Amino acid sequence: MSKKLRNDLILIALLIIPAVLALALGALRKPGRACQITVGGEIFAEADLKTDALIDVDGLLKVRIEDGKARVLDPVCKNKLCSAHPPISASGETIICAPGGVVVKILGQGPDFTQ
Amino acid sequence: MRPSRKIALSGLLTALCFVLSYLEFLLPAGGFSLPGVKLGLANICVLFAMYKLGPEYAAGINSARIALSWLFFGSFTAMVYSFSGAALSFLAEYLLIKTKKFTPVGVSAFGGVMHNFGQIIAAAAFLGPGAFGYLPALVVWGALAGGLNGAILAALMKKVRI
């Protein structure tokens, strides 16, 4: 193996290993307590995950809280990526609707890797 | 290479970039339904230009690509993310090529990851720090997709004579 190719592999490993570790740590995250919804960086609402609810966020989308999990329904944007995202429940998990500027985030007692 | 030839080739590469961007736009996102996740095939053209024509031509092609994608199939926010990612990845790739210690595979993988960093930084400016939660997944994808693009580029640079 040439020296350059070895450098490549070291570089790629240095890039991927921390990211994989972060993902693995993320999988161990503790269950969340509440769900925070921000629109354009401003807090829109905060809701307890224990109580089922359906929150309309400025007509942009709806957040459904059910069985301690939050998910996004009926986004008005066309790519629908946020509603395709699986429900979130662990502390620090987020669903982002980029076109609408909406972030749904789980708050909790566990470590928060997103700050 | 004569400047006129370089300019003509830049036009050709810009067109190719645009076609590759369009191809990616048509591809279904499938299971990788994370915003910002894509193959970045157009970067093969940009890197090809950086190696063969020089960074100033590659920068021109890259800017034209972003402007075209915005006009044809992007939103303004997507363009800002794309620009922020492209600028950071371009700089990173340029510096890595200058060290002469890496093959196109390493250069492109690093560029891919830096593209994701740039996108996330721009996204965080719009959405707040919550956007960084996506970083680990994007970095893994960026390194793999970037490495793949680099391998394609390395093969192309061996075959294509200009």
What does this structure look like?
- Chain A is of the alpha+beta class and 115 residues long.
- Chain A folds into two domains: 1-30; 34-107, N-utilization substance G protein NusG, insert domain (mini-chromosome maintenance (MCM) complex, domain 2, Sandwich).
- Chain A has helices at 3-27, 81-84; strands spanning 34-39, 42-48, 53-57, 61-66, 69-73, 94-97, 102-107.
- In chain A, strand 6 (94-97) and strand 7 (102-107) form a beta hairpin.
- The model of chain A is unreliable at 110-115 (pLDDT under 50).
- Chain B has helices spanning 3-26, 42-52, 55-73, 76-99, 104-127, 135-159.
- In chain B, 78% of the residues lie in helices and 0% in strands.
- Chain B has one domain (3-24, 35-159): Arp2/3 complex 21 kDa subunit ARPC3 (Orthogonal Bundle).
- The mean pLDDT of chain B is 89.
Q: How much of the residues of chain A is beta strand, in percent?
A: 25-35%
> Please, what is the average pLDDT of chain A?
84
Distance between the termini of chain B: 9 Å
Q: Helix/strand/pairing class of chain A, anyone?
A: alpha+beta
What count of helical segments of chain A does DSSP give?
2
The CATH top-level class label of the largest domain in chain A: Mainly Beta
Q: Walk across the major sheet of chain A and give the strand order.
A: 2-1-7-6
Say which CATH homologous superfamily of the largest domain in chain A is assigned.
N-utilization substance G protein NusG, insert domain
Helical residue percent of chain A? 25-40%
What's the tally of helices of chain B?
6
Q: How many DSSP E strands of chain B? A: 0
What is the structural class of chain B?
mainly alpha
**CATH topology-level fold name of chain B:** Arp2/3 complex 21 kDa subunit ARPC3
Q: Can you write the helix and strand succession of chain B as a string? A: HHHHHH
Shape of chain B: globular
CATH class of chain B: Mainly Alpha
Shape of chain A: elongated
Distance between the termini of chain A: 41 Å
Q: Based on the structure, what is the oligomeric state of the protein chains?
A: heterodimer
Helix content class of chain B: over 70%
